[in-house]
Specification:
D-alanine--D-alanine ligase, 3 domains, Rossmann fold, 365 residues, D-amino Acid Aminotransferase, Chain A, domain 1, Dala_Dala_lig_C, ATP-binding, 6-stranded antiparallel beta sheet, 4-stranded mixed beta sheet, Dna Ligase, domain 1
Amino acid sequence: MSVNANARQRVAVLFGGPSDEYDVSCHSAANVVRALNRERFSVTPVRITRESVWIVGEEIGSEQGTVIDEAHLLHSTRDELSRAASSVGASVAAAVASLARMDVVFPVLHGRYGEDGTVQALLELARVPYVGNGVFASAAGMDKQQTKRLLAADGLTVADGVVLGPGDTAIDEATRARLGLPVFVKPARSGSSFGVTKVNRWSDLDAALELARESDSKVLVERAVPGREVDVAVLEYPDGTLVAGPPLEIVLPGSVDFFDYGAKYENDAVEFRIPAELDPQLTERLHELAIEVFRTLDCKGMLRVDFFLRPEADGSGGVVPVVNEVNTMPGMTAMSQYPQIWKAGGIEYSDLLTILIDTALAADR
């Protein structure tokens, strides 16, 4: 799609959706809309309700003093009676027609039906450029089982685990012995630690499986990996250059057992240390591994790779970086790791968004 260099570029910010992460998406979208450069971009919010109705809002004013917060954003895409009564199919068709007139779409969608390749496929069919990862990387990155398979096939170290499909409730004794305790029980296709339980006794497994299956019928039971938790962000520039940001270490207070939803978004005592205190050789290695993950999954635009630094078994003091998870659409809230990493790396939030949009417009999808 050609872009008129003399006019502000039309950006649709797509947010909401029927996943568990609706609220996180709204928080992220408010930050994105507020930070986009008004001199260069005109912004139209498009909200997907929890019921999957798509609502195209009015263009956000270009005045620098315009107040953009979550309440304003939701009001601009309010559920008017005529819109709320619209069928899902009709609302999607009308929204896609509006999106096709945009220069670029910025999906700020987390979880299933937004981060898993479904919306990306729709945007591909509409022939409109969009920020972030394509269909394959989004789908593969959302499914923890498939992510592990792809990364392990390329020689990257991942945590051992077993996948239980719908109806599977038992883990045999040999597998229990191999995994040991504790284990983490996770929905295989969900984010933000929804439905995740740390299991210290096998007698608690059934309850953990039940909780995980509230988010996904496929569940991952994964060996706990001891060690420091470090995240690395990868950013693609319009010319294809890949850069990894300063490593971020997640430091939990003693009262928090693991980095769950509450720790991510509700606990002020959780500390992000940027840059993490690592020796330069380890930092360089993490950068290399994060970019390798980006390429293995055929990512575009952005990726966050979460590592555990597992101590070497020989007691030498060295560590083995273990890929825990990837995030193909990282959170964009004020507390989120991805924008904080790049701010520490010298890229302000507004400039980060501009780079992501320019990369999307330059991409040959």
